[in-house]
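re: that chain from earlier
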Amino acid sequence: MASKKTIDDYTPLNRLGQGAFAEVYLMRDKSDNCLYAVKKVSKTLLKREGKIEQAIRERELLISLNHQGIVKLHKAFHDNCFLYLVMEYCSKESLSKLLERHGRTFPYTLVKHYTAELVVILEVLRNSSIIHRDIKPENILITTDNHLKLIDFNCAKKLSSRKTIRNTFVGTLSYVAPEVIQNSKVIGPEVDLWSLGCLVYQMLLGKLPFTAQSQEEIYENILNCRYHLPPDINPEVSSLISSLLTFDPEARLGSSSIQDLKNHRFFEGIDFDSLWNNPVPEVLEEIKQEEQKKEDLNGHKQEEPKKEEVLMDGHVNVKKNFLKNENRRLVVTTKPSIKFYSMRTKEERLDLDVKTVNGVKKLRYNAFSIETPKKNYEVIADNPDLWVEKIKIVLG
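^ sequence. v structure.
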């Protein structure tokens, strides 16, 4: 992977994304005119947070992996200020964006196909003794031919000879396994199996299995495996999800062998060896066919839901106690939705069910409150009058 390349050999086109320590840009190689996704990592931030080893590990893990379902690292180099990872560019979108654009759910046949691809990706990681630890829709890209590709190995680790590693809390809460929350001394590849169960649930039902109005409640729901499966759900899917969202890591399907997971009846008819050699059913066509089944007796389609629009998006502080505030990004949309995100990790911290919100009111020149039966959230922000106005629109 040695290279004499520098960042000056690339022409920046636009920014694709941003994380706590890095930014990802779409760039064009001046020598071959090809497009790449270039991850630009700040050395200063890495040193300050003690994450240098983590960045080096990400590069080494990507170098060691070679599969169509995993992002390919083409070049790696650095200068005085930044580390650069030059990776293949997927021009479509992330799985999260695709879910968002199409009603947050996929037809059964597409869920089955994508789940099979994820199983193969997990098998590749297992064979290389790697745990990803942050498998979620945002870290899965859709290729131009509609296949899946896993990205972002920032949290990934190589397993020790015991096939386990010391546990540290990383990942995104909604997809994190109970043993991570419990601070178990060691964890294994079963954490990725749990995340897979969350993904299958989300692709089919359009929501996460573990949700609540506070982070503490989400913790509790995960630790108690408290989630709901509709009674009319396909029994094969129900069985698969239940076998993955199991508290005991060793009891999860696929813990002993990925082949056990492949043998589940949900995957009947799937040829795992040829998934990337055969075309994926056109996503839009699959969804169109599913919508046609929802036509009413008169042959008219059901009214399509209105497109979600962002009414207000900005930086606020949420009062935690008398002495402490938490920095948050507050997003209010016409879905209707009121969500708070971490400013540092971008992770969703709170999703308020608008049906349970009793009201919103201005408190003073720089603050307002959102009132729910369980708790009143005091929010410090610029333009509290405008925030109150927009939230009232969402509450109806």
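The chain is about 30% helix and 25% strand.
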